[in-house]
Amino acid sequence: MTSLTEDTRRSAEAYGESAASRKSFFTDTSICIGCKACEVACKEWNRNPQDGSLEVLGSSYDNTGGLGANTWRHVAFVEQNSQRIEEARESGRKLVNLGMPGVGPPQSSGPAADGAKSSTAPPDTAEFRWLMSSDVCKHCTHAGCLDVCPTGALFRTEYGTVKVQEDICNGCGTCVAGCPFGVIERRDEGIIRAKVDRAQSKYAQEIPNEGTANKCTFCYDRLVDGQTPACAQTCPTTSIKFGDHEDMVDQARRRVAELREQGMTEARLYGANPNDGVGGTGSVFLLLDEPEVYGLPPDPRVATKDLPRMYKRTALAAVGMIAAVGASFALGGRR
Amino acid sequence: MTTSQHDSHRPPQPTRRSRRDRKAPDGAREVPMVEKPEFTSYYGRPVVKAPPWGDEIAAYLFLGGVAGGSSLLSAGAQLTGKPTLQRNARLTAFGAAALGTAALVHDLGRPERFLYMLRTFKVTSPMSVGSWVLSSYSAGAGVTAAAEVDRLTGQRLPLGPLRRLLNALEAPAEAQTALLAAPLSSYTGALLSATAVPTWNAARDQLPFVFVSSAAMAASGAALVTTPVNQTQPARVLSAAAAVGELVSMKVMKKKMHPAEAEPLETGVPGTMLKWAERLTAAGAAGAVLLGGRRTTAAASGLLMLGASALTRLGVLRAGIASAQDPRHTVEPQKARLEERRARGVVDDSITTAG
């Protein structure tokens, strides 16, 4: 093995007969209207406590800020002029088409795919546009958080998603640093303000799982019941699609091809490539500009991929230290 | 922590600026090392998250190093017949390991669950590997320290029949600590590097070397403080080797990084800490080698080296946290490496694709 990342095949095998097909999101930002229904549905279903101080952040219509311990869906708002649109179109032209199998004539795999042509054509906005995108945990194929978790609290579910067992997590915080997308976070005092003040008792709330790492569970509790995750269920424009991983990637490829045919060369996929630094993501995005515009890393790489080399350097350093001490005693040991 | 996401909004502080620095055109306190930043971000918000690690973690990095280095000194002292050095090194090692473990536990979000660290063994997690190394090491260090305390107090510890067990375990425990001491000092390099924190990740090839050097220096410093000069000759030699190792590996480490990844190590509060760490390293090691023959100057040099090691750990920890808080340190190096791969003709591994 050249890398020390989790072996996803073995993880799947561990479930035996209860293993299900890998589930994924496909977030098509070209039809996101920024209604934040996904944020609300997520918060309601998972009973996540308040984030921040209810203040206006001065970033278009985004007053949530970003993903965190208490926010598992986050809608980004970016306002752009015609020059930025042209730049995005230009950068999209340079991208490589992987030409993966599965790109072909549309198959009738669902109502969303069938109705795509007529109802999801983006409006023509040559002078000005608003980018809106609902961000979420990527549920990576090679998940940095899961790999570096020392307790085994983070695990690969039978649906191929990544979840924290909040009764196991001891809040060491290694996963926070391990995530290349800045998704997972420890739920503690610095982040949320527990409403203990008498005057604010209206907002008094219980803080569950304080001190442990928290992130999107892919609505594990809904999946085991055969239901759709809350965000995808509530999305009014089907911008958030949910289904089997292969289907989602397939839909994403067809959608981006369709948009590029219409001249929208700024359209691109994010996370659909199994050869990228995280082995492809379980949340595929269709973006209309460079990933960093949305706050996504342009070239994420799971750190544990380089772990064998790091261990080698660590061992070498240890040997060097022993040699240095040995030499010191040889030189200065006898008087 | 004194670094925060609001640091970049602080007004310029002209009195503290060194002559070398130029004034930034936009009045920002820190002048970027790279030219005009060619990057976009989402309202300047961080892309990756800094771990919730406070200064306790820096204290642990320092104390773990003191413990590891001291155990190696103890083993050497045993082989060359230096009983006082051995006794002091053993007591230092256990004290540092115990304090360091306490610091680690205190920094957990759920300290009462600290034993969950030993719930499983995961080779993919340096934190898991390190937890096993630290706990096995501490068990051995505890036995050797207990044996020393028993000897110091003239066998007055109320051990009863356990004293024979303690004496029988002393030699194997010594071997155990000696074996685990170097890994204890170096694994923390992999612990910080196996993350998405830009500066730590970019330091992955050299950080273990910086940390073992820092550990050796701290341990020889502790030996110079605690032990009479007739037995500290090896510690003096070691401090010179450690200082050279520390200064060289830190230089190489910074040089191998993208400028945006190295910048947090050179600017702001962490930069100042690391600058002083460098000065104290040089001063302490020079003092130990040249003036280590007298008890007072030896102890003073030892304190300087302990301070240097502590500052190195704190500086590296805080520089990493600072690097995660500004998206520039994440986005610029990633774009650069993506471009570099594209220029080499590797086009199939980008996360962004046209289809």
3D structure, described in words:
- The complex is a heterodimer of chains A (335) and B (355).
- Chain A has helices spanning 8-13, 37-46, 82-93, 111-114, 116-119, 144-148, 174-178, 220-223, 230-234, 245-261, 307-332, and strands at residues 23-28, 73-81, 128-136, 154-156, 162-164, 185-186, 213-214, 240-244, 268-270, 283-287.
- With 335 residues, chain A is an alpha+beta fold.
- Chain A folds into two domains: 10-301, Alpha-Beta Plaits, CATH 3.30.70.20; 303-335.
- In chain A, β4 and β5 (162-164) form a beta hairpin.
- With 355 residues, chain B is mostly helical.
- Chain B has a single domain, classed as Formate dehydrogenase/DMSO reductase fold (Up-down Bundle).
- Helices cover 68% and strands 1% of the residues of chain B.
- Chain B is built from eleven helices and one strand; from the N terminus they run αααααααααααβ.
- Residues 16-25 of chain B have low confidence and may be disordered.
- The interface between A and B is large, with 107 and 95 residues.
What count of helical segments of chain A does DSSP give?
11
**Average predicted confidence as pLDDT of chain A:** 87
Strand content of chain B: under 5%
Structural shape of chain A: globular
Assign a percent range to the helix content of chain A. 25-40%
Low-confidence stretches of chain A: 102-118
Given this structure, which CATH class of chain B is correct? Answer: Mainly Alpha
> What is the name of the CATH architecture of chain B?
Up-down Bundle
What is the helix content of chain B? 55-70%
CATH topology annotation of the largest domain in chain A: Alpha-Beta Plaits
Q: Oligomeric form of this entry?
A: heterodimer
Please describe the biggest sheet of chain B, giving its number of strands, its sense, and whether it closes into a barrel: none
Average pLDDT of chain B works out at 92
Instruction: Report strand % of chain A.
Output: 5-15%
Low-pLDDT runs of chain B:
16-25
